[in-house]
Automatic annotation (TrEMBL):
Residues 8-96 form the Dinitrogenase iron-molybdenum cofactor biosynthesis domain. Signal peptide: none annotated. It comes from Caloranaerobacter azorensis DSM 13643. The lineage of its organism: Bacteria, Bacillati, Bacillota, Tissierellia, Tissierellales. InterPro entries: Di-Nase_FeMo-co_biosynth, DiNase_FeMo-co_biosyn_sf, MTH1175_dom. CDD domains: MTH1175 (cd00851). This is Predicted Fe-Mo cluster-binding protein, NifX family.
Amino acid sequence: MRIALAVDGNYVSQHFGHCEGFELVDIQDNEVKNRVFVPNPGHRPGFLPKFLSEKGVNTIIAGGMGETAQALFNENGIDVLVGISGSIEDVIKEYIDGKLVSSNEVCERHEHHGECGH
């Protein structure tokens, strides 16, 4: 299982498309087996879902994400968890513990991307 967290610094980004990059985390038997940071290659419509799918990602975790992006992730076989905030370490632990719950919130306006996920 490989999850990707959209991150800014050590925290989950509140808008995946504008994040610094993605923390790719391999989880096996409820343990982190590997972690790698991948810089955001750029926000272009439809690109990131395919990019992360090609990296073997099964789940994307972010604060906020638009409806089209969520649909494209799902079309690429990637589950979407949005409305998530906190440090990378805490979110990974919550995910492994089965306590991370998506708000299923849709970010609709990019001019307010700082508010996405809240």
